[in-house]
Sequence to fold (550 residues):
Amino acid sequence: MAEIEREAMEVDVVIVGAGPAGLSAAIRLKQLDEDLMVVVLEKGSEVGAHILSGAVLDPSGLDALIPDWKEKGAPLNVPVKKDNFYIFGEGGQVRIPNWTMPPLMNNHGNYIVSMGNVCRWMAEQAEALGVEVYPGMACSELVYDENGAVKGVVAGEFGKNPDGTPGDGYEPGMELHGKYTIIAEGVRGSLAKEIIGKYDLAQDSDVPKFGIGMKEIWDVKPENHNEGEVTHSLGWPLGFKNGGGSFLYHIDNNQVYVGYIVDLNYKNPYLNPYQEFQRFKHHPRVKQVLEGGKRVAYGARAVTKGGFQSIPDTAFPGGMIAGCSAGLVNLPRIKGNHNAMHSGRQAAEAAYDAIKAGRSGDTLSEYDAALKAGPVGKDLKRVRNVAPLNARFGPAGGMALGGFDMWFQTLFGGFSLFGTLKHGKSDAQATEKADKHKPIDYPKPDGVLSFDRLTNVSFSNTNHEESQPCHLRLKDASIPIDVNLPQYAEPAQRYCPAGVYEVVEGDNGPKFQINFQNCVHCKTCDIKDPSQNINWTVPQGGDGPNYPNM
Fold:
């Protein structure tokens, strides 16, 4: 096929992703120099459409970026008033007293928010400063200069046939070239993954680690609602062999955010994270909140949990990686949005200094150093051993030892008796062969508190144009049936929270089917596939979930 010709647009800084990191970078650049040309490209149909987070927001990142955010009407309207932590058994619970928790776990001063709505507000602030924000513009590939540095991205390519050839209404998109490109795609971004591999940015860091987070929004009865209450739990239904836990956040308007995170380092290929989430809602303490209510939204997203030691080098020739693309979530706090904002602000400052000095296209190592030594590094370094301890000793032992480590570091200036522990295997490598495990018999959803996957996916407002190429690419089409099915009982049937992958019986035996229209862009398949055979790429712009208030 002939090389595609595209128009090119020259700007100062190209930002991929209108999440908290990308928008913070854009705002900070314009605060520093209103004449800089800054473009933000967002693959969702609107800003916030692909944003999913718990979320209890630590406002420190926003405080540093927009100190007068309250006066400007930021949608942080529900301060945390009550903070609970429970160990769940099947029929009851034990509350862990707040005073036993390290101070960093305290949610006082934080806010229950919709991060989708926070990002919509941030986009308004950015546009008021002159930032150009383009939703519905998926960045399908990187553009490199003659020296091998990133000089921009291709955005807005539409109308390909299923085989990848240009269709009748094909639009080639546009190349956006910048002096620097900031990659802020979120967890396991496809461009970030390519960049980390191309420049070997992870050579000095530990393996990345992830969880799968699933969330529903419920309208609940007023008598079951307690605005400002935050509840987290460990234990049932996952038990104490598998890592993960829950959240229950009472926001305003008689709504509750209910969610479950399953660590993706689980061994049993029969485990089904979505079913664990649905079963969790039948716990008596959760049931009493949701009973008589109505689920109004559903979504899922991978969560980074590798922490400080898993952060790759975040500066590369021509740009920087920010936010969850770099893995900046504080696992025990279940918070990363504040760090995303800090990283975006620091990336902007590094880019501004370089542009002001007449530079472009080089490696801004000063950003990586500032990120790891500043607020983000300090936040993550204190909790760096929690994930490895959980993996080694299970959630109960990990909680006890992790709590001890966090307390010790609090009391002794960041010193840890454990040093910095390693994660060991990747989440894909952690998956064991099916013959070592027994299938799990999950209860059938009741349609009241628990729901089947396809019904719930309809509440994510997910849509993909069916005539486009499948954005879930198999490196080897034979592996799902020839390798993963006999060895691992093909876990893609279970780890996907949207029912994208099926093994169906055909005339010639089992066949692997990909229902990409259902994809909610969680990236679990890219992470957990034991053969590392699935490559998640962007569909055409605007496709995917359309989350209203996630």
User: Anything to note?
Assistant: The mean pLDDT is 96. The domain at 8-69+116-205+312-382 is CATH 3.50.50.60 (FAD/NAD(P)-binding domain).
